[in-house]
C-alpha cells in the first residue's frame, strides 16, 4: 500500500473511532482516544512521506524521523513550507495535537479551583477538521505547482 492510500486509511480509522467515542471515561473509551491520536499521527507520517516522495524531496535520514520531525524538515526545505510552518504556530494543528496528547496523559486534578484542560469531543473534532483542511490545502498547492 502506498503512502497516499495509508493517509486515507488512517484518516478513515480516526473518523470511525471519533464517531464511536462517548467520552464517558471508561477504559474502552480511553483506549479509543489513544487509538484516535495514533491514527492521526500515522496519517500525518504517511502524508509527509507521500509529499516528500511525490515532490522529489531528498534527505538521507528523512524516513527514519518520527512524524513531527518529518514535518519540521519539510517546513524548512519544501515548496509548501509556508503552509506547514503555520501549523506549528501556537494555534496550529501540531500544537493542538500535543495539547490533546498532554490532556490524555495527565489526570484531571479536581482539587484545584481552575482545573487542568479536559478533553472533549469538540477538541477531537476540531483536530480532525484542521487536519483535513491541511491535507486539502497541501494537495491543492502541490497540484498547482
Describe it for me?
The chain has one domain. It has six helices and no strands. The two termini are 25 Å apart. It is mostly helical and 145 residues long.
- Whole-number radius of gyration? 16 Å
What's the helix count? Answer: 6
Helical amount among residues, as a percent range?
55-70%
Low-confidence stretches: none
Number of strands: 0
- The SSE order reads HHHHHH
Give the DSSP E fraction (strand runs of 2 or more residues). under 5%
Question: TL;DR of this structure?
Answer:
The protein is mainly alpha-helical and 145 residues long.
Distinctive features:
145 residues; single chain; mainly alpha; elongated
Strand-helix topology:
Layout (H helix, E strand, L loop, with lengths): L2 H18 L6 H28 L12 H11 L3 H6 L6 H13 L15 H24 L1
Amino acid at each position: 500500500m502506498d503512502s497516499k492510500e495509508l493517509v486515507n486509511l488512517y484518516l478513515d480509522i480516526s473518523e470511525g473511532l471519533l464517531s464511536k467515542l462517548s467520552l464517558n471515561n471508561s477504559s474502552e473509551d480511553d483506549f479509543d482516544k489513544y487509538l484516535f491520536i495514533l491514527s492521526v499521527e500515522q496519517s500525518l507520517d504517511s502524508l509527509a512521506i507521500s509529499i516528500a516522495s511525490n515532490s522529489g524531496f531528498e534527505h538521507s535520514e528523512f524516513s527514519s524521523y518520527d512524524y513531527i520531525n518529518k514535518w519540521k524538515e519539510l517546513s524548512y526545505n519544501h515548496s509548501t513550507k509556508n503552509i506547514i510552518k503555520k501549523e506549528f504556530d501556537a494555534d496550529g494543528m501540531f500544537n493542538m495535537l500535543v495539547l490533546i496528547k498532554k490532556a490524555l496523559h495527565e489526570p484531571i486534578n479536581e482539587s484545584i479551583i481552575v482545573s487542568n484542560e479536559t478533553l472533549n469531543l469538540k477538541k477531537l473534532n476540531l483536530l480532525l477538521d484542521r487536519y483535513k483542511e491541511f491535507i486539502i490545502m497541501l494537495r491543492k498547492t502541490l497540484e498547482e505547482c
